[in-house]
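Incident review: delayed structure delivery

Summary: a single-chain prediction request sat in the queue longer than the usual turnaround. Root cause was a stuck worker, restarted by the on-call engineer. No data loss occurred. The affected request and its eventual output are reproduced below so the record is complete for anyone auditing the incident later.

Affected input:
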Amino acid sequence: MPEAAFYHLTRQRPEEALLELIPRARGRGWRLGIRGGDAERLKWLDEKLWLGPKESFLPHGLEGGDHDARQPILLGPQAVANEPHCLFVIDGAAVSGDDVAARDRVAILFDGGDERAVSDARALWSALTGAGLPARYWSQESGRWEMKRETNV
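Output delivered after worker restart:
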């Protein structure tokens, strides 16, 4: 069943949270998309993933290459050419109900210190749950991820 998972970041930057969440999702055998609205930030994240430790290497590619459909992890402004099971959304990139309905999970990571990001996440929660889609809200205020709310689950 599809699900939107909202991750309220209060102790990590998005890239730190991604490095924690991606291996969990890959452990399920899922292909992943990482959608972001800032091309330079996605390039930076691509480089960061390439420079990680060999033992925890995460195979991936930037959208727009010849092998997008075959990438286990695809980064880009859409990040769906590889038909991801899970789509991670960062930096306020757009998400629709169709995005959620087409996947096992769409994980929306937002900065709890950015009032606009929090406001946008609340509006997106309302839109998705109002359309009857399942959603869970996760907080890291205590120092670890805790589910604080679920709707339509």
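Verification: Residues 4 and 135 are 5 Å apart (CA to CA).
Action items: add queue-age alerting; document worker restart procedure.
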